[in-house]
Design a protein that fits this description.
Blueprint lengths: L8 H14 L3 H8 L15 H8 L1 H24 L4 H16 L12 H11 L1 H18 L2 H19 L3 H17 L1 H9 L4
Length: 198
Amino acid sequence: MFELGHFSVMDFSGILLAYLVGSISSAIIVCKLMGFDDPRKDGSGNPGATNVKRLYGTKPAAITLAGDMLKGWLPVFFASQMGAPSLLVFLIGFAAFLGHLYPVFFGFKGGKGVATAMGMMLGLSLPIGLAVVGTWLFVAKVLKISSASALVAMALAPLYIYLLSDNMDWVILTVPLTIILFWRHKNNIQRLISGTED
């Protein structure tokens, strides 16, 4: 477990590249290309699909969501296709997730990471990814609260990985990923508790 000493310079280069891919802000780029203001200036100030939808509608939000999921999925998919060990594959996905949260190209002020984490899960394993995304959609349909659906889906992600794979590295590493995601949603959690979340 966690045998990082076996990684080569090329492996660490892959992790760095994944971070740079994650640092590409879909929300900012999509809004700029479609003639909208920077989504960090209005609404919640979060450069993510939910805020883009609130500000500018469904179409730019859908493109933003797809872009954020893609940058979580793509590095993981390529690493898997190149035969990288499973631990490295996960770390590459984690790096893309952190890039979304703390993008080097945008002053380290990024989004909350839900779509990128889900794209990463789809890249790790289609059944795992579908379980997470399915939970997100189901809870969103029932509660109609974006943050709650994301938090429930990601809280269950370690369990889904445990049930649908035999990779304990992934199970263990998904826990800090989920904790970070919850931390990024701390204001949403406070509003959920007080009953004031949109």
